[in-house]
Amino acid sequence: MNRLLAVTLFFLSMVLNFHTGLGQEKKKTKSVQTKRTKIEDDDTRFIQSLIDKAKPGDTIKLAKRIYHVRSLQLKSGVSVHTLGTLKQIKPDSAENFTMGKQYSEHPLFYGNKVKGLSLRFNAFTYGEAVRLDNAENITIQDVVAFGDSTKLYSFSGIYLFRSKNINIENAELAYYGMPRKSPNYYQRGTGIRLQTCSDVTINENRIHHNGENGVFLHSCANITLNRNKISHNGMSGIQVAFGSVGLENTYQITNNLIFANAADAIDINNPDISRQINLAALIEGNTSYDNGWVKGEKTRDGSGIATLVGLKNIMVRNNKSNRSNRPAVYLRDCDAVQVINNNADNFAEIVGSQGQIHLYKNTFAGLRLLSDLKAKKLMLDSNNIRYLAIPNGIMVDSLVFLANDLKGNINVNMSGQLIFKDNVLSSSSPRGGISLWKVNGAVLSGNEISANKSDALYVHNEAMNVVIEANKIRSSTVCIKDAGSQQLKIIKNTLASDTSNRSTSTLISTNPKDLTLSNNTYYLGEKEAERAVEFEGEGTVFIDGETHKLFTPDGNN
User: Where does the Right handed beta helix domain lie (predicted)?
Assistant: First the structure.
């Protein structure tokens, strides 16, 4: 059973106002009067003596007043709770954060190999508010800790090293480091910094106005960040970094509000291209906005939902993002990533060497595939995407579009196979609806495709083994233009050219190479064109069951 520290000196009872008592013990403590009647400038020795004399299970409670403290050494099993404010005395020698020395010699609370205690306090600090090395079973709760906002190379608010079973809850950590001044560089100072830790829960905290990241995690495992409010930090809201031995796994980043940070909302970046980290991460229910800006200027980073690099086994689900300067979701060199039911006013961007990527029921301003993309399977299912950018030369073994609502031109010039099924595509691009320049096999079926400024569907002679079946295709000019694709099959489609130009045909084939036309219905303009289907050059065509009709007067077909 936890018991409160018995204070045997009267001046401690009067000046520090500790809550005393020993549970069920009957023996009474003896009080001794002292001449000390004023609060000195340095309370470190007195509070430290209480920690040192306490036994495991004791809780030291400090009354509501201001305490001036240098650095306090924690003791296993001894908790410290204060209603007052701890003001750290400025160290005699200046210290700066460096990559070689990421911790202070003068934290407010320091614990090495401590276990089984809790901390509750309000503080202003120059070093960390809490620094723990090789600690376990620690709770940091109901804390307010403000750092030095004038410091260029600040230490963190909370720094944990090789620690486990840590709970950080309902803490406010702010002003550790100078505010970021430029979009081109940043200062040091992080709200919570973890290195080589495991089983850490970070819940319902407010982490804001720190020089660098809100939360930084390096070489950590089994981490939960839930319902935190992370804002106005000089780099990413949450950043996950990686060591060399592959400790990182099992991350749950859920229901956080992440906004006005100068870089990404969530940045999980494994720079080692020789391996993909099986992170087993869930990124769900987060809301972000206004990330990636410094005083209205764009920084080089700023993903709205997440930047994911060199990872596999990731679920990105039910997140929302607005007004970020970089892609909402950025994927590079990943595998087994599912992006489901997210809503963002910016692009998703996929680049590098990918395994299997699945985008399902998302709303994005666009999808951008970069020219160096190599992927085993990229599936887009039931998404609302307002613009697609598919460059020449990508290599995708299987590119699958199922039941999406799409806008703009789809340009396919790739090595691999395309499945385009049950989509709605509308294009106002001068390049038309779908341009198949190069593909090793394609099936387009059950789609509604419309283009109002150019041809709805163009098939180049390097597009091999293409089947266009049971689509509704409408264009202000030509519905399908075939440039001599080998063994192109056009079957059971409804093709409507609503042009008033009688010389324009609904389907045009140049030098057809074993072209099959079977059971298609052609709708022409209000005045019947001279011919619905036009052949140019030489070639072979197989025709069966074709039907020509006019539009009705209202333009429906």
Answer: 118-269, 410-541
How far is it, in rounded angstroms, from Cα 206 to Cα 200? 17
Which residues, 6+ apart, have CB-to-CB distance to 292 below 8 Å?
261, 262, 263, 264, 298, 299, 301, 302, 303, 324, 325, 326
Per-residue pLDDT of 395-427, as tens digits, reads 889 999 999 999 888 888 888 899 999 999 998
Rg (CA), the chain: 33
Cα(427)–Cα(388) distance, integer angstroms: 11
Query: DSSP label at 52?
Result: H
As a whole number of angstroms, the distance between CA 159 and CA 137 comes to 15
User: Using the 8-state DSSP alphabet, how is residue 184 labeled?
Assistant: T
Residues 6+ apart with CB under 8 A from 18: 4, 5, 7, 12, 50, 60, 61, 62, 63
Q: What is the pLDDT of residues 153-210, one digit of tens each?
A: 888 999 999 999 999 999 999 999 988 888 787 889 999 999 999 999 999 999 999 9
Pairing of strands 297-298, 293-294: antiparallel
Quick one: which of 456, 465, 483, 468 has its CA closest to 537?
483
The helix/strand/coil state of 44 is helix
CA distance 522 to 473: 10
If DSSP codes are grouped into helix, strand and coil, which group holds residue 51?
Answer: helix
Closest CA to 487 of 517, 470, 466: 466
Residue type, 494: T
Predicted model pTM: 0.86
Residues 6+ apart with CB under 8 A from 383: 359, 360, 361, 362, 363, 364, 367, 404, 405, 406
- Write the single-letter amino acid at 551: F
Whether 447 contacts 422, CB under 8 Å? yes
Burial class (CB in 10 A: 0-12, 13-18, 19+), 44: middle
Residue 525 pLDDT class (50, 70, 90 cuts): low
- pLDDT number for residue 503: 56
Q: What share of the chain is helix, strand, coil (3-state, %, to 5)?
A: 5, 50, 45
Quote the CA–CA distance of 28 and 8 in Å, as a whole number: 10
φ, ψ (nearest 5 deg) of residue 10: -60, -40
Q: Distances from the Cα of 430 to the Cαs of 449, 486, 504, in angstroms?
A: 15, 26, 17
Integer angstrom CA distances of residue 350 from 184, 354, 363, 396 = 25, 8, 16, 12
Cβ–Cβ contacts within 10 Å for residue 307, how many? 24
Distance of CA 222 to the CA centre of its chain: 18
The Cβ-side half-sphere exposure at 25, using a 13 Å CA radius, reads 12
Q: Is the dihedral of CA 422, 423, 424, 427 positive or negative?
A: negative
Q: Which amino acid is at 536?
A: E
